[in-house]
UniProtKB/TrEMBL annotation:
This is Uncharacterized protein. The chain holds residues 64 to 421 of 428 of the full protein.
Length: 358
């Protein structure tokens, strides 16, 4: 870490340091699940004297790294932390105790921890120890940082994002934009960020290979492949890339998967009827908090997946890539399930960005 940044607007000091917490927390994007990303900054006499972030579940929390970084300078400092300090013994001891022991003066918290075993007890504990605590600085930013963690803490279900591509004239496409899959591209970033990706075997017809994030030191998602085709065998590509080392296949009794996946060490689940709920339940049981439902092209398979994801209220987010292509074939029009449900859906927090932005 080692950055000692001092440039800031005088009247937005708290916001400035909290944004720095979020910035350093994001160094661990894709690595902390099922834990949240957390960043912590210690400030004394207008200078940052310590910084830390939570790198991975099982490793020390952000506050512990920041306290270690500050050493003796932690005493009487103001602590900025993007998530309420924990107050329980989990895989690691409570951060509240470490902060009290270090004799910090004030703690500024981005958001309260939705984890029911923390939920404001961290704030209460610090206040009881005589430490001044302020809550809710850059709260929206802190919540955005951990949208998947918050969702799964509050609902017990994985955070599901649907992704697909459209041509400018509104047809469905199996393509991704040229920049999307490169390092820094939105698709490469999504793969790095999400714990799992769901793909359908129908994508296997177009020289399919398992997608991999190109981010430096990327954390590749578990690849969940829906293999469904009663009329001809589903061919699984050779697992060569690192990305493909984590694969699970969901199939049904009517489908013949080739070559035999069990012999190749790939976990295969055979269901009576493939459905998203069962797959998401698997994700939940395996601690996968964020799932990318990646739809490539419009074919029979996805008609059903679309319908289920909308009707069962499974989706938290939709990412649509608009490709600079006009007049695709009529076969690729939007699935009926999507057009017929459209009128009932209202999306919140719409944002758009140019493909050249990261
Ligand atoms: C913090 N700072 O950096 C993080 C916190 O099993 P453990 O010990 O890692 O505890 C995990 C829980 O601690 C997690 O569910 C969340 O409530 C909180 N995470 N808290 O004070 C951190 N990562
Ligand atoms: Zn903690």
């Amino acid at each position: 870490i080692g950055v000692r940044c001092e440039v800031k607007e005088k009247d937005d000091e708290d916001g400035f340091y909290m944004r720095r917490c979020v910035e350093i927390a994001r160094k661990a994007v894709g690595c902390t699940s099922p834990n949240p990303m957390v960043g912590c900054v210690l400030v004394k006499d207008g200078k940052i004297v310590g910084e830390g972030f939570h790198p991975k579940a099982g490793q020390p929390h952000a506050e512990v790294f920041a306290l270690r970084d500050a050493g003796d300078l932690a005493e009487n400092s103001t602590v900025y932390v993007s998530l309420e300090p924990c107050n329980h013994f989990g895989r690691t001891p409570p951060c509240t105790e470490a902060l009290i022991k270090a004799k910090v003066k004030k703690v500024v918290v981005g958001m309260v921890d939705p984890n029911p075993i923390v939920a404001s007890t961290g704030v209460d504990k610090l206040r009881d120890a005589g430490i001044d605590v302020m809550v809710g600085v850059e709260e929206d930013l802190c919540k955005k940082l951990n949208e998947a963690y918050i969702h799964q803490m509050l609902t017990g279900k994985p955070f599901v994002t649907l992704r697909y591509s459209l041509t400018v004239d509104g047809h469905f496409s199996d393509q991704l934009g040229e920049e999307a899959t490169k390092s820094g591209g939105y698709y490469s970033q999504l793969l790095h960020e999400y714990d799992a990706i769901i793909l359908s075997s129908t994508s296997l017809t177009n020289k399919f290979s398992f997608p991999a994030s190109e981010e430096p030191g990327a954390n590749q998602p578990l690849q969940i492949l829906i293999a469904r085709n009663p009329s001809s065998p589903v061919q699984i590509p050779v697992l060569t890339t690192e990305a493909a080392s984590k694969v699970i296949i969901f199939t049904d009794k009517e489908t013949n998967v080739e070559p035999k996946t069990a012999e190749r060490g790939i976990e295969t689940v055979v269901l009576d009827r493939i459905n998203l709920m069962t797959i998401l339940d698997y994700c939940k049981r395996h601690g996968l908090c964020s799932v990318l439902l990646d739809i490539r092209g419009n074919n029979g398979d996805f008609e059903e997946i679309f319908r289920e994801s909308f009707e069962q209220n499974i989706l938290q987010k939709v990412v649509v890539e608009v490709l600079p292509i006009w007049n695709r074939s009529k076969e690729e029009r939007l699935p009926m399930a999507l057009t017929s449900l459209g009128q009932r859906l209202k999306l919140r927090n719409f944002t758009s960005r140019n493909s050249s932005e990261s």
